[in-house]
Please model this.
Amino acid sequence: MGRRRKKKIYHDIEITGIADKGKAVGRTAEGEVIFVKGVVPGDVVDILRTKKRSKYVEGRAIEIKSYSKERVEPFCEHFNYCGGCDWQQMTYETQLQHKEDLVKNAILRLGKTEPQAFLPIAACADTTFYRNKMEYSFSCKRWLSPEELNDESISNKEDVLGFHPKGAFDKIIDIKKCWLQPDPSNEIRLESKRLAIEQGLTFFDAYLNEGFMRNMIIRLASTGELMLIYAFYSNEQEQIKTFLDAIIERFPQITSLFYVVNPKKNDFLLDLDFELYHGKDHIIEQLGNTKFKIGPKSFFQTNSKQAKVLYDQVIAFAGLDGTQNVYDLYTGVGSIALYVSAFAKHVVGIEEIPAAIADAKINMAMNQIENCTFYAGDVKDVLTDSFAQEHGAPDLVITDPPRAGMHPDVVEMFLKLAAPRIVYVSCNPATQARDIQMLSEKYDLIKVQAVDMFPNTHHVESIALLELKS
Model:
């Protein structure tokens, strides 16, 4: 029988910065880089080693010896375990500085490119209650804190509604109050749980794959329109009707109420049929003068107010005067394309998901916009020489790819198209920096700006303006 390895503890480690994915970073007495979550630059902590790699160590803070001046008390009672808002323990000013630094370091160190200017980060006016969409899970097993686990008198057998903690697919943190979505979101979640228990409905067991109540989604538009979606494990019409009728009676302001039956082992819903039970089949979101029809499967920026800030900055970077031919790549539901269309001659949008393009066309008609054309397909397959010949050479390319960034074939096509300007929007500064480095063969990086879309988290958006070299 092997000898158990003694747990290594590093004492009095000063946290000096923030690294990838929001982890704090310091150095051990031996000079090893150590990553740890839940602490703040300026903290001095004792750290239990959890992983050792050749170039770094990962650990868990077990005691804070002295506190950083940048540390504040988290406002959410679930902060220590939920993990959704992982930077609540930092002042907002500190969060902004670190997000700005993350973007700068990605561009300078990973992309090995220096812009003519780094603009100050665009802060978010609302640091709480800023999300327009929230997703919750029902469970018959409550996640227990480490303290509760050590108390044999406490059982995890409890009907709860909330979030999965990291690494616990079959348990749920029972959320009392979430600070991410405005009223009546918390009231709806708590009442949904109460009604389900009152009606004797079983809550889902992800391990056994059984139980009636599975998930709920709340979409609350800036227009005030409200969409609720409930996922049930089985198509028990009497139970579904009784529950949904009670929800409608309790919340008569509901604009749109859907349900979906999901007997699968996973919670993915987009491959299933959504049944409209009450109200309209959509809600309306609005950014500036542009309206968007949001259905149960629609993707849309989850921070509506800050999305307008982001899109306004795209327009500012683009320098549009109404004469430009614009390509908008990874257009989604056409949100950026439609928003900038008033300032362009024509906009062509490409998106891989056909349902999103269907939404884009509906939104175009609803806004009486006539200078946009949308195509469904993978950008690397649709954006070809023949496509450019058909639609004309672009004066501007706007690109907002997923976290993985752009396919090398797309970057190569950018170099062939040689559009005078590129505005690159990204939710991952690392892959944005990689792509910008590849584009530097023909493009100068003019300016970069971080945009904070998700306060109290490590996530950050970045906008970059590139111009064709003369």
